[in-house]
Amino acid sequence: MPVYPLVWTPLVKSGNYPHMAKLDAAIWERFLDKYADNYQEVAYDVALGGFLPDENQGDLPTRTGYQYSTALKVDAVLRREGEVWIVEVKPSASVSAIGGALCYHVMAEQDELSPFPLVPAVVTDRASPDIAYCAQALGVTLIEVGSP
User: Fold this and answer.
1) Could you read off the pLDDT of 12-21 as tens digits, one per residue?
2) Whole-number CA gyration radius for the chain
3) Is pTM, for the whole model, over 0.90?
């Protein structure tokens, strides 16, 4: 299970995407403009994994807060019919974006995020041909939304 329950919301441009950097949010909004109709809903700032201290280390809210602070944070989780997408949003996608998507995918499986198939994905403004090739070879969906 994720550290905190997912809060599903409609895919709308709100300007409020928890823990997304300013450049990430601009890319995300271009993604929403182009692809929001392909998905049913989104959850932001999904925390997976992390270290939950023992019961003698504090009350549950305190220990869960610590787990959250040590967890991996997924930028967005998208739900569409029959599958759940685990999304890393990153300008100029590089090896780290692909690695992040793969790690989040592994943690989502471990935390049993969904009974539906999980799709690791990167949303970016641009990626080099090498990164696109690696993403394809590793089973990561790469979505380029271009510059504004």
Assistant:
1) 999 989 889 9
2) 16
3) yes
